[in-house]
TrEMBL record, chain A:
It comes from the Bacteria. It comes from Lentzea cavernae. NCBIfam families: CysD (TIGR02039), PRK05253.1 (NF003587), PRK12563.1 (NF009214). Belongs to the PAPS reductase family. CysD subfamily. Residues 29-252 form the Phosphoadenosine phosphosulphate reductase domain. Its EC number is 2.7.7.4. This is Sulfate adenylyltransferase subunit 2. PANTHER family: SULFATE ADENYLYLTRANSFERASE SUBUNIT 2. Keywords: ATP-binding, Nucleotide-binding, Nucleotidyltransferase, Transferase.
TrEMBL record, chain B:
The gene is cysN. It comes from Lentzea cavernae. It holds the Pfam family GTP_EFTU. Its EC number is 2.7.7.4. Keywords: ATP-binding, GTP-binding, Nucleotide-binding, Nucleotidyltransferase, Transferase. This is sulfate adenylyltransferase. Residues 2-216 form the Tr-type G domain.
Length: 299, 447
């Protein structure tokens, strides 16, 4: 028997260690859970970290109201299956009572930050697990595993603490909280390889299927509560899948025949585009779109 | 051969670290098309004729505005031979804490110098930090070799000077390799250069792919800091009580006799549990749950160790600190020490000496330790803690010094005296030929 861990074993071990550190040092942690692949992986690792005891944290989903039905259905099924507690913060509620205003372009992705920060304050969460990975984007590549946020939920990249060895410093003052990223060192391919190895179930929309889509800004968008094709855009039936799952108004599908995990792994290995570049309109806004959103308190 | 190498860059501001990392990613075809397009666009916007590859890693707005690196960027890439986790660190002295962050987990550091300037103050500072942290291997990349007309004599002079310095810091000759490179033009980074016919060694990538990596030694004595006690209290697992943690050193098997520190109580491992089933053995780096034969009081912060070869349990700590905070450390300071999974109150009772990393000497009883200085201190802990020497075990010989009031991390702490010169207590040489400081002012000092 060889004791050396392979890449996935090493990443799993590191993530489990991070979950247990937070359980040991914080009073009120919460896991951000959307039903997407990274948060499903996060939950899978949390379950493993505390086995055979239940996961000692609740889940939180900031629901833009622009999610894919399949993903919400999957989210609720997973929560019920594991007997977990899920808190849902609905962007719609914030719009209805005037705390938020709908944007002219109709996208709700940037509107998630306020409900997130309000929920953190209301429930006094002191550690918030997110599924962010450093390989997603170059501002994320600068993120610590334990990332301190001010009482206003803000990230100041110049004031990051040194993070030495695997000793994480989670100390914070009242009102501040720490974002924790157990998947920091995973690449997109690691995620898919691990999903295969562990047989983790995902929402169907990650695998190829037929869908009516229209082309906008070089991305295949689906119709939904967020709108449909405008003048000059045509709805077409295509064989597609999603590489990331976020707000429907700005998450694009990719044309793909990859109908199972093996095909997805082959496709991701050969892809010449990053998952965000291929599918996220929100990151194309400017050179520092992600950094700006993170500074405001985004995931 | 290990399939993974963790490496960090180091060296003074503008020596070309980010450009070198960008070049490495670019020439190994690790950059995806949309990322590359973004770099092409951004370079064109800045009026550059060729793409500025440092933009692949300098991901923050203020980094791009100032043209410097502020925080560590982590990048992942692979060649058919190996996978790499690469930490690109800042060269500016103000952000040394971020360099320490990147280097603390590195198995190799690529230390850059500008061929026109050679070894300068910040090179020596980083070399000292790397030696202190015990980064086992160094590459000296003599960069911008294009700006000295690919001159062999310049390269040899710098290589010789640096090797002597590294040797004095405790590096053996075969743990340091010198390579002439141009990050900008790509010479000897991935492709062998026709401009340096006098150089017969490996390219940077060849070296990174083939350098031996020391795995976690399996014959090290077993150490297991307890992170969390798992007690399901469900009908199915009524009496389950497992101690969750990551094996810090050595290996463990069911049947092994262990001691719980600091209490000193002994027991036997009955089971190594994971969500995937029981294990016959667990080794350093693995997250597992241990079950013991006896019902003894164990909680987060305790350390489970092999019997016989145990760490010292003491409330007097002799340590070396790399001070990372703006406000200086003085004797009498009250701090928190986070060691393994235990955080205890502590007082700095004495500043023994300060390491002068420029002259490789030490200064006795300094009045303070300032930002980025390395020094030996004595600490008194509020309760006894099981300690290993850092040079014996990186994971159980390291600790954080934390500010009591705002929780910030003040210093990297290492049990004992990992730097050879400090250990030997070389006579102080105060007022000697202090090297001239780097005069690289930040474009804007920032908050
Ligand atoms: N001629 C020449 N210029 C180079 C070379 N490598 C880097 N440069 C230039 O040197 C400048 C600084 O490069 P960076 O890669 O940002 O330096 P750095 O070491 O990452 O700087 P910090 O991260 O701020 O410490 C840029 O203008 C580069 O284009 C080289 O090999 N030759
Ligand atoms: Mg740089």
């Amino acid at each position: 028997m060889t004791l050396a861990l392979d890449t996935l074993g090493r990443l799993e071990s590191e993530a489990i260690h991070i979950f247990r550190e937070v359980a040991g040092e914080f009073d009120r942690p919460v896991i951000l859970f959307s039903g997407g692949k990274d948060s499903t992986l996060l939950l899978h690792l949390a379950i493993k970290a505390f086995y055979p005891a239940p996961v000692p944290f609740p889940l939180l989903h900031v629901d833009t109201g622009h999610n894919f039905d399949e993903v919400i259905e999957f989210r609720d099924r997973v929560v019920a299956q594991h007997g977990l507690r899920l808190e849902v913060a609905k962007v719609q509620d914030w719009i209805d009572d005037g705390r938020l205003e709908e944007r002219p372009d109709g996208t709700r992705n940037p509107l998630q930050t306020v409900p997130l920060l309000d929920s953190i304050n209301e429930h006094k969460y002191d550690a918030v697990f997110g599924g962010g990975r450093r390989d997603e984007e170059r501002a994320r590549a600068k993120e610590r595993i334990f990332s301190l946020r001010t009482a206003f939920g803000q990230w100041d990249p110049k004031r990051q603490r040194p993070e030495l060895w695997n000793l994480y410093n989670g100390r914070h003052r009242a009102g501040e909280h720490v974002r924790v990223f157990p998947l920091s060192n995973w690449t997109e391919l690691d995620v898919w390889n691990y999903i295969e190895r562990e047989g983790i179930e995902l929402p169907d929309i990650y695998y190829s299927h037929q869908r009516d889509v229209f082309l906008r800004d070089g991305m295949w968008l689906a119709e939904g509560p967020w709108g449909t094709a405008r003048d000059g855009e045509t709805l077409l039936r295509k064989t597609v899948r999603y590489r990331t799952v976020g707000d429907g108004s700005c998450t694009g599908a990719v044309e793909s025949d990859a109908s199972d995990i093996h095909a997805v792994i082959a496709e991701v290995s050969a892809s010449r585009l990053t998952e965000r570049g291929a599918t996220r309109a929100d990151d194309r806004l400017s050179e520092a779109a992600m950094e700006d959103r993170k500074r405001e308190g985004y995931f | 051969m290990s399939d993974l190498l963790r490496l960090a860059t180091a060296g003074s501001v503008d020596d070309g670290k980010s450009t070198l990392v960008g070049r490495l990613l670019y020439d190994t075809k690790s950059v995806l098309a949309d990322t590359l397009d973004a770099v092409h666009r951004a370079s064109a916007d800045r009026g550059l004729a060729t793409p500025d590859l440092s933009l692949l890693v300098d991901g923050l707005r203020s980094e791009r505005e100032q043209g410097i690196t502020i925080d560590v960027a982590y990048r992942y890439f692979a060649t058919p031979k190996r996978s790499f986790v690469l930490a690109d660190t800042p060269g500016h002295v103000q952000y040394t804490r971020n360099t320490v962050t990147g280097a603390s987990t590195a198995q190799l550091a690529v230390l850059l110098v500008d061929a026109r300037k050679g070894v300068i103050e910040q090179t020596r500072r980083h070399a000292a930090v790397l030696a202190l942290l015990g980064v086992p291997r160094l590459v000296l990349a003599v960069n911008k070799i294009d700006l000295v007309d690919y001159d062999e004599v310049t390269f040899s002079r710098i290589a010789k000077e640096f090797t002597a310095h590294a040797t004095a810091l405790g590096y053996t000759e075969d743990s340091v390799v010198e390579i002439p490179v141009s990050a900008l033009a790509g010479d000897n980074v991935v492709e062998k250069s026709a401009n340096t016919p006098w150089y017969s060694g490996p390219t940077l990538l060849e070296h990174l792919e083939n350098v031996p990596v020391e795995p976690d030694p399996h014959d090290a004595p077993f150490r297991f800091p307890v992170q969390y006690v798992i007690r399901p209290r469900t009908a199915e697992h009524l009496d389950y009580r497992g101690y969750a943690g990551l094996v810090a050193a050595g290996t463990v098997k069911p049947g092994d006799e262990v001691v719980v520190l600091p209490s000193g109580r002994r027991s036997t491992v009955t089971k190594i549990d994971t969500a995937d089933g029981e294990l016959a053995e667990a080794a350093a780096g693995q997250s597992v749950t241990l079950l013991l034969a006896d019902d003894i009081d164990i909680s987060r912060g305790d350390l489970i160790s092999v019997t016989g070869n145990e760490p010292t349990v003491t409330d007097e700590l002799d340590a070396t600190l790399c001070w990372l905070a703006e406000k200086p450390l003085r004797a009498g300071a009250r701090v928190l020490v986070k060691h393994g999974t235990r955080t205890v109150q502590a007082m700095v009772t004495e500043l023994r000496d300060r390491f002068d990393e420029q002259n490789l000497s030490s200064v006795d009883s300094p009045a303070s330790l300032e930002l980025n200085e390395i020094g030996r201190v004595a600490l008194r802990l509020a309760e006894p803690v099981p300690l290993d020497d850092y040079s014996f075990s990186r994971r159980t010989g390291s600790f954080l010094v934390i500010d009591v009031s705002d929780g910030s991390t003040l210093a990297a702490g290492l049990v004992g005296a990992p730097l050879p010169l400090l250990e030997n207590g070389v006579e102080s040489c105060t007022g000697g030929s202090a090297a001239t400081p780097d005069n690289h002012a930040l474009v804007s000092p920032g908050p």
